Amino acid sequence: MRNGLVFLGMLFVTMVFTPIISAAKENRITIVQLAMNGDVAGVKARIESGENINAIDASTGETALTASISEEKFKVASYLIAAHADVNQPNKFGNTPLIYASTAGNAKITRSLLDAGASVNGRGERGLTPILMACGFGNLACVDILLSTHADVNLATLDKLTPLMLAAGGGWQIENGFPGKPLITIIAFYNNRTAELLTQKLLNSGARINDADARGMTPLMYADRMAFKNTARILLNAGADAKMRDLNSHSANDYIRIYRNVRKQIGNK
Fold first, then answer.
1. Backbone φ, ψ for residue 65 (5° rounding)
2. How far is CA 180 from CA 23, 30, 175, 256, 257, in A?
């Protein structure tokens, strides 16, 4: 009899607590994590059950939409846009879905976000904009889309970096040791031809040619740093001032000399 009661007690515990434990395990995976995994069905089920489509995940700081785009799970992103996710909701870092789409170079998602009402000039972390990110990664198709929807080509970051500077210099670059022995790590590097195309597109859209960043570097200096002769010529023909100097009193021509060894390292002499 006693054994029977023990068995019934164990059966009761199993019946009551197993579903609770299973549900707890399932709920550990958030809608954002499902989006990051590319699980369209899982995301859809959560939304249909009433879960907040725009919630920011506590562990990642992302929304389902920013996560799906940054992780290049574009089927999930397309579903979320169609399901009316807030296309202007930034993640906890302040970056919007359109910034991530422009970075990834996905023209379809970029267009879908804009069609759904995304702000073409919405700023992100440190003042980043979609057009700046598209130029920084050489994403020509995204640049065309953003320009067609009146992206402001003169919005600068907190470091006064503009799209034209990135375009003229071949994309995002991180450096140390300037001047003297500059060390440079290329995050996104594209060739002179891409730099030419982007530079001309931005100039045609009203980009200011002699703006300087926080170090006093102009678009012409960015082009000469990479020895992009054709890009530099485009800038000069458009009115770039070759006599301008940065905060270290270097001219654009000085950048050709200073960065010669760096260009050899990356195969651009």
1. -75, -45
2. 61, 50, 12, 13, 10
- The SS3 call for residue 181 is coil
In angstroms, the CA 199 to CA 240 distance is 12
From 152, 168, 183, the end of a domain falls on 152
Is 1 part of a structural domain of the chain?
no
- The answer, as to whether pTM is greater than 0.90, is no
Spatial neighbors of 9 by CB under 8 A, at least 6 apart, are none
> For the segment 21-35, what is each residue's pLDDT rounded down to a tens digit?
344 444 568 999 999
Q: How far apart are CA 165 and CA 240, in angstroms?
A: 12
Distance CA 114, CA 142 (A): 11
Residues 40 and 140 in one domain: yes
Consecutive H or E run containing 15: helix 2-27
DSSP, res 56: P
172 and 116 in one domain? no
109 and 178, same domain (yes or no) = no
